[in-house]
Amino acid sequence: MKTLIIASLAILLSAAAIQAQEEYASVKQDVAKANKEGGITKKEKREERKALRKLEGPQPSYQSREHFEDDFDKASDVHWKRTKYFDEATFVQDGQKMTAFYDYKNELVGTTQVKSFTNLPATAQQFINKKYKDAHVGKVILFNDNEINETDMLLYNHQFDDEDNYFVELQQGTKDIVLQVDMSGEVSFFTTMQ
To answer: Which residue from 132, 125, 126, 131 is spatially nearest to 171, judged by alpha carbons?
Structure first.
């Protein structure tokens, strides 16, 4: 009798395990399908966001200027310009020349400032020196993202996800390229300069 009960339980547990595996496989396929479809939707949304970001008129907005005064109350030597996608304020704060970028909602997207090659993480310096040893290092720019704002940034006419990054200009023969370096020192090709 005990053998019959144990055998029945074993069969029941095996059936439950098989059913759970089948449900897991089905859910996994659904997630993979949703991710694949989501990737397309994300790309489409990014293109829509880019179109929505275009600014109207030639002058920086009053609201961007007001937000700038709140964000950088100690700024001096402030110069404004409007580009296709951003109101840009170039200024000096704490002895550093910076540029602040404000989007179509008049919110701070982030700032840039010129840095030196030695400001890059050590692993990035080593990688660039090894892989691009014949290249001349030009300008190094630090983009400091405003984490509160979801608007992506546009540098070198190339859009990228909004996160802190260095951008390193290199001249290699007749070719000018830009590398992107994240804060952990990972280096990737960003774009070719024209």
So the answer is: 132
Nearest to 187 by CA among 116, 129, 115, 144: 129
- Classify 138 as helix, strand or coil: strand
Residue 176 neighbours by CB distance under 10 Å: 16
- The pTM score is 0.72
Kindly state the tokens that stand for 4: 């019959």
pLDDT digits over 85-142, tens only?
999 999 999 999 999 999 999 999 999 999 999 999 999 999 999 999 999 999 999 9
**If phi over 0 gives left and psi between -120 and 50 gives alpha, with beta otherwise, what is residue 158?**
beta
| Token pair in block for residue 179 | 């590398």
Tokens encoding 109: 């997207």
29 vs 151: CA distance, rounded Å: 32
Dist. CA 117–CA 99, nearest whole Å: 19
- Within 8 A by CB and 6+ apart from 180, the residues are 160, 165, 166, 167, 187, 188, 189, 190
Tens digits of residue pLDDT in 29-40: 554 455 445 554
Cα dihedral 47, 48, 51, 53 sign = negative
